[in-house]
Amino acid sequence: MDFIEELKWRGMIQDIMPGTEEQLKKEMTTAYVGIDPTADSLHIGHLVSVMILRHFQKCGHKPIFLVGGATGMIGDPSGKSLERNLLDEETLRKNQEGIRRQLSHMIDFNSDAPNGAELVNNYDWMKDFTFLGFIRDIGKLITVNYMMAKDSVKKRFSGEGDGMSFTEFTYQLVQGTDFLHLYETKNCKLQMGGSDQWGNITTGTELIRRKIGGEAFGLTCPLIKKADGTKFGKTESGNVWLDARYTSPYKFYQFWLNTSDEDAEKYIKIFTMLDRETIEKLIASHREAPHLRELQKVLAREVTCMVHSEEEYNKAVEASTILFGNSTAAALRNMDEDTFLQVFEGVPQFEVESSILDGEGVNFVNLCTEHASIFPSKGEARKLIQGGGVSLNKEKILSTDATVKKDDLLSGKYLLVQKGKKNYYLIIVK
User: Fold this and answer.
1) pLDDT band at 86, cuts 50/70/90?
2) For the chain, how long is the longest CA-to-CA vector?
3) 3-state DSSP assignment of residue 71
4) Would you say 358 and 382 are in contact if contact means Cβ atoms under 8 Å apart?
5) What's the half-sphere exposure (Cβ side, CA atoms, 13 Å) at 1?
6) Torsion angle of C-alpha atoms 153, 157, 161, 167, degrees rounded to 10
7) What's residue 77's pLDDT?
8) What is the distance between the alpha carbons of residues 87 and 73, in angstroms, rounded to a whole number?
9) Which neighbouring-strand residues pair with 192?
């Protein structure tokens, strides 16, 4: 497979330095992508870099993933109008470990193959620099004029934000030093990243040329946006994280499932490893019957399985069926509590005392009117029950005399009432 051709048809190339294609065709090439560990989890915006490295390895080349323990202490000014808060070493180490765990799900760092992936931390070599050593050995090689010409610097000097500190100004030199170090120690000749990294990447290639006369290359991917122009990966509740502690597998699956048709056609190319023929068939089929949302379903399956697991994907599908389809009471009972609460987050909730379920239990109509205001009156409750429009825990209430007991509780404390097809109510028993 040709790496550049693969990225081109997927819409994953923005800028590419002259000679890059020739270098990749000439020999197995080592390339790196860097991420600053500003949190202990990656979010889906980072997935583009992960996918680039997966394709790179699949095409026979060697990928290096750099976690920026040192650069994370400075903060990259690219694409930002405000200076980032600096993190201490303990926080950065914790964040790095979280990122390492996530990446190991998607990229194999234990392979003995010549093109096996590696994970490195730039703090391991940057910590040995002294200030005088850095400005003597690195600072003298790149002019201020060259650094000022970078877009990330120009924007901040032309009134965007509150200017730029010397710390951030030096960021491109620090990142360039990473490239130089990897070039010298691991024969790494290519750096890849988002299009906002172009200035930092080209500084690295220039540093390698001026310091040791070496030739290095750069390639960037477009920054992903939604069809409506809004930022990809953001929801009302913030970032879509890869860590289940911050974004549950169910919510993660729902994010991809709810993408627009236009976005799904773009995302299926970028965020899955499916081949061109498969993707083109999927897109053609989807255009004929968009209401079936087959494209979104495949996209959600592929990405959820890759980031979480097939087991978590199956749980997410089951959870979706419970909310939107004709699932069974057994499926509801088999759902773990965390997923259950994620699925029914936002539905009206009522708290009741557990004592009302003692003994013979409580009459269902009384429960939903006197203890929880699900129905405005007992008359309306009885009428809906007689019409077959009320369920408890996904089982139809067949009689107005039905009682609710402690045995009916889900996870020992929840009751799910459904009125009609779409109206859910959660009763929490304290």
Assistant:
1) low
2) 87
3) helix
4) no
5) 17
6) 50
7) 57
8) 6
9) 219
User: Each residue of 156-179: pLDDT tens digit?
Assistant: 777 666 677 887 788 889 899 999
Q: Looking at residue 81, what is its pLDDT?
A: 46
What one-letter code names the amino acid at 148? M
Residue 125 CA to residue 73 CA, distance in Å, equals 14
Most confident of 231-240, 298-307, 356-365: 298-307
* Residue that has been written with the tokens 């965007």 in this structure: 160
CA-based angle 101:107:109, to the nearest 5?
75
Q: What is the torsion angle, in degrees rounded to the nearest 10, for the CA atoms of residue 402, residue 405, residue 410 and residue 412?
A: 170
Q: Distance between CA atoms of 380 and 369, rounded to whole angstroms?
A: 10
- 150 conformational bin, left if phi > 0, alpha if psi -120 to 50, beta if neither: beta
pLDDT at 79 over 70: no
**DSSP β-ladder status, 62-67 and 118-121:** parallel
Task: Identify how many contiguous H helices and E strands the chain contains and give both numbers.
Answer: 20, 15
The mean pLDDT value of the chain amounts to: 89
pTM: 0.82
- Which tokens in the block code for residue 29? 């090439």
Distance CA 97, CA 41 (A): 9
Long-range CB contact pairs, 307-313, < 8 A, 24+: 307/47, 307/102, 307/105, 307/106, 307/242, 307/252, 308/105, 308/244, 308/249, 308/252, 312/244, 312/249, 313/249, 313/253
What whole-number distance in Å separates Cα of residue 371 and Cα of residue 348?
Answer: 14
The answer to whether 280 touches 248, Cβ cutoff 8 Å, is no
Q: Which amino acid is at 70?
A: A
| Average of per-residue pLDDT across 305-320 | 91
Q: How far apart (Å, rounded) are the C-alpha atoms in residues 32 and 190?
A: 7
Asked if pLDDT for residue 55 goes beyond 60, the answer is: yes
pLDDT tier at 253 (50, 70, 90 boundaries)? very high
- Tell me how far apart the terminal alpha carbons of the chain are, to the nearest angstrom: 60
Strand order from edge to edge, sheet including 217-221: 15-16, 217-221, 188-194, 30-35, 62-67, 118-121
Residue 349 scores a pLDDT above 70: yes
| Whole-number Cα distances in Å, 76 to 39, 70, 211, 258, 305 | 14, 11, 23, 32, 31
Active site residues: 38, 43, 46, 80, 84, 175, 196, 231, 234-235
Closest CA to 6 of 63, 51, 72: 51
Whole-angstrom distance, CA of residue 349 vs CA of residue 372: 9
